[in-house]
Amino acid sequence: MAADSEPESEVFEITDFTTASEWERFISKIEEVLNDWKLIGISSGKPLEKGVYTTGAWEEKSDEISFADFRFSVTHHYLVQEPGDRDGREEGVEDALPLPMQDLLCMNNDFPPRAHCLVRWYGLREFVVIAPAANNDAVLSESKCNLLLSSVSIALGNTGCQVPLFVQIHQKWRRMYVGECQGPGVRTDFEMVHLRKAPSQYTHLSGLLDVFKSKIGCPLTPLPPVSMAIRLTYVLQDWQQYFWPQQPPDIDALVGGEVGGLEFGKLPFGACEDPISELHLATTWPHLTEGIIVDNDVYSDLDPIQAPQWSVRVRKADNPQCLLGDFLNEFFKLCHRKESTDEILGRSAFEEDGKEVADISHALSKLTEPAPVPIHKLSVTNMVHSAKKKIRKHRGVDESPLNNEVLNTILLNLFSQFKSAPSDSLTYKLALCLCMINFYHGGVKGVAHLWQEFVLEMRYRWENNYLIPGLANGPPDLRCCLLHQKLQMLNCCIERKKARDEGKRGNVSDRSPSGSSGDTGRGADHSGDNLKEADKEVGKSWESWSDSEEEFFECLSDAEDLKGNGQENGKKGGAKEGSRDPVSLKPEGRLHPHGKLTLLHPGEPLYIPITQEPAPMTEDLLEEQSEVLAKLGTSAEGAHLRARMQSACLLSDMESFKAANPGCCLEDFVRWYSPRDYIEEEVVDEKGNVVIKGELSARMKIPSNMWVEAWETAKPVPARRQKRLFDDTREAEKVLHYLAVQKPADLARHLLPCVIHAAVLKVKEEEVLEDISSVKKIIKQIISHSSKVLRFPNPEDKKLEEIIAQIMSVEAIIARARSLKAKFGVEKCENEEEKEDLQRCPCPYATWCILYAHLSNHLFTLTESSDEVTNFVPHFPLIFLSCIELNLSISAMPPLDEELRRSGSAEERRFTAGSVLDFPPPTGREIVLRTTVPSPAPYSKALPQRMYSVLTKEDFRLAGAFSADTTFF
Amino acid sequence: MASATDSRYGQKESSDQNFDYMFKILIIGNSSVGKTSFLFRYADDSFTPAFVSTVGIDFKVKTIYRNDKRIKLQIWDTAGQERYRTITTAYYRGAMGFILMYDITNEESFNAVQDWSTQIKTYSWDNAQVLLVGNKCDMEDERVVSAEKGRQLAEHLGFEFFEASAKDNINVKQTFERLVDIICEKMSESLDAADPAVTGAKQGPQLSDQQAPPHQDCAC
């Protein structure tokens, strides 16, 4: 280093002449890459196991090098082997042949179904390919090709690498490779011929054998025997037998009135195109020795029927279009529509609502009298007509997305099944119906239209006290979708309103009749939602919550006599602790006597009062309420406020209790309501008698606690005259408004779970028919997955898409199974007995069931990862024949002679059928010829020679690997 | 279910960014078994012999650290009276954990456990976790339900079991922490289960944008 810094010192220029030219640099780069990948040295490894090329994993490594400015990619392809195998590289036996040369002769992996073409042609487990990089031109000129090959040769020689090195020449699509493999004293040249048309002498075995022999140019006589492996492949692809596009359910047929609308409850299923695109049959003679068979231009022993090995490969269509999947996708797309119902149907339809409603209700009021059974249909039809009229006015008949009949059918269908105890709910049916409408009838327009009608119908039902059918009774089921809850909520409202109206009608004398219109009008005044109110008035005193009389009473007409009661009590400060209310008060609103308890002071039996039911809640209301409650914070004041806000129910119960039990006290109430807060003790009084003495628990005695306060405020008012805890009018209007403002997209989101649910059921139903075990598993997974995703409000689109994709994949699998079944004629065999016979029969003719089982196992477990599957089936030549017969009608196969069928042995039958039916010419002919002969001189080492040939309609290729001893040459 | 992006787990509310997960827990059981006291002991570390009987539903909040994660517990305290059942059961659906409580000095409250458990099964979300707690274990003299009975019942119902005392502060913290741990376990389990899910496709990458579930190494 010091010397360098001296300016005066003599300058030595070292020129490395070995890397002077671009060519030399290129070679050294190849060597570098080989070095980097540790491909130098003796390669060793276990002999290849049978089928390992298919079952094992292949990997590749790539790098880029350049020759001047021409870039090449270098790729190392290799079969992943157990680590022990590769470490042994250095320890190979000195005089053993390099591994690749041994592989040339290995017969265990001929014709691998999926492999790099070089693997198929040469049987190699490992090789390196140098090919022009992505955007570079092909290497075409002969001199360039030779130059490349020389580079490879030199690089291999320099490094001692035993991995075969190929260069790709000519156009990429021709897949032309030349290459070389070197070992100590041996070399294999890989050569290739690729032609569009095969010369006639190469189309048969004997011609190829001649080429092979002349190529080895073996000086020995007699020549060592050549071993041969032959495969003839037949491809079936133009299926004629089945018309795949399935017919959609025909709504017009429904209108005809025959089908009864069953179709609306069902989702469609199945592929619209054949999900199996090709079926390959390969007939293989894995090991023949020269001379055993004859195959020349005039005669051939290669009868596919006689081939010892058969295999079938199925090539699946990519993402076949399937009906159920389409349905789901289309419906899912709805979720992304932005338009509101008004925008879709035209705003005017709604603006007119106010005016038209009178019309409709007038028309419908006529229908309120008769028995409810015919009303259903009539009312719906009527509804539809008047609604139609209204819509038609603005948009014209032709613009209407659904024609009248269709709409009628739909609505009738929706409601018609209600009486027959349907297992599914209205919501579920609505979902399916919208799904259908969306797909077949006008898309989003149709959906908007139907929804509008639906909402109108709901309003009609509310206003006319008709319960909505197809919904479980009781409060909204929080396990269902919100829309379902809303409908249930509406039903609760209708139920209460109905009960109230009927009550009124029944007790005209008791209560002044107040029309439902009046009721409705006032509904908005009393807020039944105490919480909401409380929220607004946080901070007000106790009195202002609940003690304002005009808020308290339902009907003014009742208020007068109520006031009589109320004032008396009120003046005395409510039911003060221990105060004796005049027992003369008439008890009201009794449900039944408690049975065990009597009032502490008057000693009268304690009556359980009729109480108000707590307000039913949908999950959004509940959420709202708990948010309000949570917002009050965790302080003591917050807690107190919270308790007050929730005290409406307690207060109402206390009032009912007071009304039912005149003269009662808090202790009485507590003994009924919260028994553990009344503590009884046996005490001995001053006279020595054991008496049971009771008192309120410590917590009930806390001064001015909520319970005491409420008790003091409570007036004796029976439940029916109390302010409603649940304002059905208001809640119903809220629900109806909610329904009306749902855009088609919102609706789709609400109902998507129902649709997915239905789709899963459908898939399940179809799966049961096919009984495919892997599908069972996937369905299970889909169910658990969707239940996770759909549990939460607003699931992510991505997850929903996933679910839909999963359902689609199952559909495709089942469709494939069916397609296969059809192709193998499984369905053709209609005679059950015959079918069973065939299944039981061990002869090849009946192997379709075995084959089918094989195929399905493989197919359906590998579906997601691969697009083709091979399965080896030892004997089933005739199946394929019948399959060809079925699908291509190559030649008419006369029905098998009955007698022969019964008596003939398998062999006979095979023979018969074989002679009747001719195989078409094979789509592909592959022949591997192998031998071990000394080359180039008789005294040279005997080395592996191999030639592979493949002949297809438009392609002929010879790929030869010829080894030679290089020691003395 | 248990992705961190789901609203029930760890979705950070705009008002409070100070936690990684939020668990809703419900305390249920017969009237006057000590639910409110139990909660006050845990949340405020205070005890009053008599709390006003809860009207409807009340709640407290406590944030704890578990495996480097801040977990905000929103603990809802419910009224035990029969009459409040319909009101309180409506809240079951949002809860991830339940503390089902009885009073060891009160047979009736113990006999009602089965019933409460049925209520949970009916109204809660299927994955909700439940702990059975026998409260007031300081009142040994008045005990009528043996610990063994409690344990057997818990086992029968498939719940974990604690005896506790809000008054003497026995097992209160442990109860809550154990419940949190069980919920976390369940959460990571179901995340794991979701992993190889459904035909292998498209599942993997999506999991990675979720927060990893807290791992389980609790010491109690």
From TrEMBL, chain A:
GO molecular-function term, one example from the UniProt record:
GTPase activator activity
Q: Tell me the ranges covered by the Rab3GAP catalytic subunit C-terminal domain, including all copies.
A: 751-969
Q: Where is this region: Disordered?
A: 503-540, 560-597
Tell me which InterPro entries the record gives: Rab3GAP1 (IPR045700), Rab3GAP1_C (IPR045698), Rab3GAP1_conserved (IPR026147)
Report any Pfam family annotated for this entry.
Answer: Rab3-GTPase_cat
Q: Does the keyword Endoplasmic reticulum apply?
A: yes
- GO CC, alphabetical: endoplasmic reticulum; Golgi apparatus
The Rab3GAP catalytic subunit conserved domain sits at 586-739
Family membership, please give it.
Belongs to the Rab3-GAP catalytic subunit family.
The entry's protein name is Rab3 GTPase-activating protein catalytic subunit
The organism named in the record is Callipepla squamata
UniProtKB/TrEMBL annotation, chain B:
Q: Which UniProt keywords apply?
A: Cell membrane, GTP-binding, Lipoprotein, Membrane, Methylation, Nucleotide-binding, Prenylation, Protein transport, Transport
* Location(s) in or outside the cell: Cell membrane
Q: Does the keyword Amino-acid biosynthesis apply?
A: no
| Reactions that this protein is recorded to catalyse | GTP + H2O = GDP + phosphate + H(+)
Report the function annotation for this chain.
The small GTPases Rab are key regulators of intracellular membrane trafficking, from the formation of transport vesicles to their fusion with membranes. Rabs cycle between an inactive GDP-bound form and an active GTP-bound form that is able to recruit to membranes different sets of downstream effectors directly responsible for vesicle formation, movement, tethering and fusion.
Query: PANTHER family attached here?
Result: LD44762P (PTHR47980)
Tell me what this protein is called.
Answer: Ras-related protein Rab-3
Its source organism is Callipepla squamata
